[in-house]
Design goal:
Length: 438
């Protein structure tokens, strides 16, 4: 049967959990289904194909995936319910047991999801998809599957790298996404050129461990950003997140004098205690982290630095948490992204004897979120009354336009001011930005 015909008129709904990479991959799958004749609908609308792109980073993330699978199956009896992503890779057997799941796609087949969906329509649609009949091979992938998410917004997410070789003691990503691999610089520049041709102005460079870029091609992350910087039409790049040990002086220095890389960094620290960092098997210490943030500020005094932290890791005693808190308090950064440690089967962290109670994790989290609010408020306050370039983004009907400054301050357009979406304009920041520091 003609594959094109088999999906014509079929309605496809998506729900994505987890990281930006998952969102980029969902967008690419959605484009492929549309090319095959399907129509994309909202997740609350009736659908023939329901895709959950899953996440396994915590027990809560997995619970949410199961909720969405159930919801899709309940609302769309007879639909093909597909589960892909990290949870599908790590716990395919568990998902196969769930009522309503028709297809569990492992990472090795990530590039073939559209094809597998067509096959199921060709082979099984007449008798119904049944349960869990087909679980394609779930071996770890070695190929790089390109992805780029395009939304209604001005910002695009370009996947440049996948997988990770680090095996931090608390993390399952290397098991779920496989070894570090990447697209070639030439292919990524081409994708950025396509984004520019479609009218995109800003690209967020994403990956699992993007500083490790180049394992498959012998290229470097520095070479990648230098090449992307030359793409005409793209006015802004942001680096989604980069390990502190891989954020080299050369990369920081290049960003500070580049044409389009914004003064905005997102650096995962995870703990401000050297003892906990070593239990986590991270590849740096707090001194290195501080040195990197200081260099960023020396070269880009107005830069926004966001920092990931995990609280309640096994081995994080009260004393070590206080050490971590003091270090974070002393850092010149704009925001913390706080995550609670979640026990993940198969990780080395489970061998650490000391564990933190849920109440204590909650309390530590609360304190760090408070600290983050203070830091963000202080950061935003520094810029009230100053002028900065804002890229205005498309907004939902009837809502005021929003945008971001070069250094990632969220701005809402005042009622008496109607800037053009997709345009960068100098804008004087008023105290209204402080309402946005959530
Ligand atoms: S660097 Fe560590 S935390 Fe990040 S994906 Fe790799 S193993 Fe996981």
């Amino acid at each position: 049967m003609d594959r094109m015909k088999v999906l014509t008129g079929k309605r496809a709904a998506f729900h994505t959990l987890g990281c930006k990479l998952n969102f980029a991959e969902t967008a690419t799958l959605s484009d492929s289904l549309v090319e095959l004749g399907a129509q994309v609908v909202g997740e609350d609308e009736a659908a023939d194909i329901c895709v959950v792109n899953s996440c396994s980073v915590t027990e809560v993330a997995e619970q949410k995936c199961r909720q969405f699978i159930r919801r899709f199956a309940r609302r769309n009896p007879g639909a093909l319910v597909v589960v892909m992503g990290c949870y599908a890779q790590l716990r395919a057997d568990e998902l196969r047991q769930m009522d309503g799941v028709s297809l569990v796609v492992g990472i090795g087949d990530k590039g073939r999801v559209a094809e597998l969906i067509c096959e199921r329509f060709v082979n099984d649609a007449a008798e119904g998809f049944g349960c869990n009949m087909d679980t394609p091979d779930s071996h770890l992938a070695t190929a790089f599957v390109p992805a780029c998410s395009r939304g209604a917004r001005t910002r695009y997410f370009l996947k440049v790298q996948d997988g990770c070789n680090y095996f931090c003691s608390y993390c399952t990503i290397p098991f779920a996404r496989g070894r570090s691999r990447n697209g070639s610089i030439a292919s990524l520049v081409e994708q950025a050129q396509r984004v520019a041709a479609e009218g995109g102005r800003e690209i967020v460079i994403t990956g699992v461990n993007i500083g490790d870029f180049g394992r498959s091609t012998g290229e470097t992350f520095l070479e990648l950003i230098k090449a992307l910087d030359t793409v005409e039409g793209i006015d802004r790049y942001r680096i989604s997140s980069i390990e502190p040990n891989l954020l080299t002086e050369e990369i920081i220095e290049f960003c500070s004098r580049s044409r389009a890389f914004m003064p905005h960094f997102h650096i995962p620290l995870q703990s401000g205690s050297d003892k906990v960092l070593s239990l986590m098997r991270r590849r740096y210490d707090t001194a290195l982290f501080r040195a990197k943030t200081e260099l960023v500020h020396r070269l880009m005094p107005d830069a926004f630095i966001g920092v990931d932290v995990i609280v309640g890791m096994r081995g994080e005693t009260d004393e070590l948490f206080e050490e971590s808190y003091a270090f974070l308090e002393s850092l010149d950064i704009a925001q913390l992204h706080v995550f609670s440690y979640s026990e993940r089967p198969g990780t080395r962290a489970l061998q650490i004897a000391h564990s933190v109670s849920p109440q204590e994790k909650h309390e530590r989290s609360r304190r760090l979120i408070e600290l983050s609010k203070r830091k963000l408020h202080d950061f935003y306050s520094r810029f009230v009354g100053t002028q900065r370039p804002v890229l205005w983004e498309h907004s939902a009907e009837g809502k005021p336009l929003q945008g971001f400054t070069d250094n990632y301050i969220r701005v809402t357009a005042p009622e008496d001011f109607s800037p053009n979406a997709d345009r960068i304009e100098e804008f004087t920041l008023t105290s209204r930005i402080l309402d946005n520091d959530a």
